[in-house]
Amino acid sequence: MWIVAIGWMYVVTLMAATEPSVVGGILTFFGYGVLPLSLVLYLGGVRLRPRSKPPSDAAGADPRPPEG
After folding, report:
1. How far is CA 15 from CA 21, 43, 58, in A?
2. CA distances, 45 to each of 40, 41, 49 (Å)
3. Taking Cα atoms as reference points, which of 20, 19, 39 lies closest to residue 29?
4. Which of 1, 33, 53, 62 could lock onto 12 through a cystine, CB 3.0 to 4.6 A?
């Protein structure tokens, strides 16, 4: 997936470089490159993130000894 992301950013960088104005190039770079790619990489990485585990008894216990 990383090779596709690198290739896409290469293409978008070349597209941005051929824009007639600097503002157009920046908007092209962010509109076609950074924003969509960040969304795709975030959604693609959801499967790779560890699932939240339910709290165990030891994790939820009070670390102080009982008073008595």
Report:
1. 12, 25, 55
2. 8, 6, 6
3. 19
4. 33
Q: Are 19 and 25 in contact (CB under 8 A)?
A: yes
Residue indicated by tokens 């950074």: 34
User: How many Cβ atoms are within 10 Å of 42's Cβ, its own excluded?
Assistant: 9
Three-state SS annotation for 13-52: HHHHHCCCCHHHHHHHHHHHHHHHHHHHHHHHCCCCCCCC
The string of pLDDT tens digits covering residues 26-61 is 999 999 999 999 999 898 887 776 766 565 655 556
